[in-house]
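In practice, a research group might receive sequence data for several interacting partners and want a quick structural hypothesis before committing to experiments. The following worked case mirrors that situation: the sequences arrive first, and a predicted assembly follows.
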Amino acid sequence: MYEEIFIAGSGGQGVLSLGKILVYSAAKENKLATYYPSYGAEVRGGTANCMVKISESFIFSPIIENPTIVTLMNMPSYLKFIKKFIPQKFLFINTSLIEEQEEIKKFLKHYSKNLEIIKVAATEIANKIGSTVVSNIVMLGAIARRTEIIKITSIKETLYKIFSKKILDINLKALDIGYEI
Amino acid sequence: MKKVLQGNIALCEGAIEGGLDAYYAYPITPQNEISAYFAEVLPQKNKVFLQAESEIAAINMVFGTAVTGKRAMTSSSSPGISLMQEGISYLCGCELPCVIVNVMRGGPGLGNISGSQQDYFQATRGGGHGDYHTIVLAPFSVKEIYEFAKESFLLAEKYRIPVLILYDGYLGQTMEIFDTDSNEEKLNVKIDQNIDKSWVLDGAKNRPSRKIRSLLMAEGELEQHNLKLKEKYTQIKKNEIRVKFYEIEDAKIGLVAYGIAARAALEAVYKLKNKNIKVGLIRPQTLWPFPYNEIKNLSNYIKKFLVVEMSSLGQMVEDVKLAVEGNAEVFFYGRGGGALVSSNEIIKKVLEIY
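A structural hypothesis for the assembly, expressed as tokens:
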């Protein structure tokens, strides 16, 4: 396997955490992975993004050139990144915050013939179960199910390790709901 | 043991494993994770963490610790390293072992906060005033950052010399999975005898006093000192060159790259191999001493070299030209200002000259 994953959203939506959880979980499956975040010059309310590569053999550059999976969590990142990082296999869209544009739909049809677009109302689901901040984990559940790049059991192991007891349950719940979508 | 770490944090863990006693620095992106980590961890281990008021203060704090024989380190990014040059020259003049880390960003001036490889000249040519060198290590993965940091103090003490660890902001920010048990990507510094500590200033009770200084005013004294340093650098060149070769045996073009640019270059090598285009990679792990002879020997059958750097002007390319001594053509591809070279760009350049 060799996957290039691009994840973007606004600062505070947990897009960097989402990328890191993928890498920690890949380590549990004896895969190799790299993670590269956008850093430093990002501003509040702007976009944040990270690049994850997962493979069974040595990964060369951590920087993504041809993403297989793209996850977009808000409208500014949808508009800013979709034409720069055209997914070849899967596109995950947080439909709570993204209104799809006809022009972009046409663009994707033209440049990515076999693309599967998965729409997840991640923010709404997160709000329903009690906290808007777990929208990233809802999305992670959906990614794990549809792409099969990482087992959900590995992700759960990671969540147990990185989250305190206080917030673990809601994250596990978010993951399960995302996985069932 | 399996670790999942960001490059900058791997540096910290490697340095602690290597016996770090004291760390001094002034903040600058893209290496602030180093200070943040040490601020938390070093006091717990009864080691020294001190945020200096400037880079100039930080390098002189390193000096103050190094004269006592303790293991001191500082880190910064390009503009901050420029500020430290006077102190580095003094450290070299006084032959003090220490570790200095430059997580390079774009320049000149304040530049930007993205990764770059634009400080090659500064790192390998001395950077400060006077005849001197520092050993320059150029890791290309998070694992190598960890291993080089771990062995850097040993290397510094073996020769009483500052060791500069040089990598770019991209690698500093990258998180990777690696195994500390694997022997790959280690420097394997060899120590034949006990490291001489007879110069250390640790209190002159019951022994004659010692002096450590770089001001040598007596007739001929400084020239003798320069010659002593020269002999030391000759020994380092003999013993400590580290370089990796990939797919070089039947290569028609030899790529030369270090750090993260070498990873893009390596990707290009294997992509081209699939198309039966024979390209190899030479990756110096030490930038000073530079593998001149190793590259010269390759120029007996490789007649074209392509140097890939994250620099617009090209800096290491001059060393490759010196190495081949006109025996092969040397081409350059590079991007500066914080831009990253990609494997596809390298492939395009290779096909132009193949």
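Before designing any experiment, note the following. Chain B has two domains: 2-179, 244-353. Chain B touches chain A through 23 residues (CB under 8 Å).
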